[in-house]
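fyi for ur records
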Amino acid sequence: MTLNKHKEALKVAFPYTIPVLTGYLMLGAAFGILMKSKNYSLIWTLMSSIFIYAGSMQFVSVGLVASGFNPISAAIMTLLVNARHIFYGIAMLPKFKGLGRKKWYLIHGLSDETFSILSSVKIPSHIDRAWFLFYITLLNQIYWVIGSGLGNLVGSIVSFDIKGIDFVLTALFVVIFIEQLLTKKSHLLEIIGAGSAIACRLIFGPDNFLIPTMILILILVIILKKPLERRT
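which gave:
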């Protein structure tokens, strides 16, 4: 692959990540400030954002480590908090097929927001698919790493009350969802997702609805596969 093709893939990928840029810088900064409040240095903050890179689980991991690390409880907690990524992975199997070694990083970097972009984006025909997906994933993680690092540095200078700052993630989801509504002609997938979430929230309650929602969405997508393909 020539350098020009790399630049083209990066240039086309970057605009899709701009909504994530603002959200990840703020939310990453909140994580960095939290790490500093628990006396974790900049290097530990950056290493966590590079190798764990699990959004909400990173916030949970601060308390897990601070209270005394237990591998079994940490594994169970991670599964409960990030179980939705099982369904993300299943949904992305067709797009990740045949990408070679890049696939392993794409799996590692499949955050909520990255999944939202990759699952809906239309890749221009003249752009290399593998590098386009790679750069979207890489840029999003870079935003998170930079945000967490800056938060840790700022937290060493100024004390913050970070209560409620994690709402930035919710706001980011809303922005991406609205963008999909405005750019897509068919809204069947959005209706399935929102309807499933509302129904499971009413049935299972606020603490237990996430996994049933994912299962219901998967079932409905399988059942409605042909109508969805026709609308797409």
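DSSP finds 13 helices and no strands in the chain. thats all i got for now
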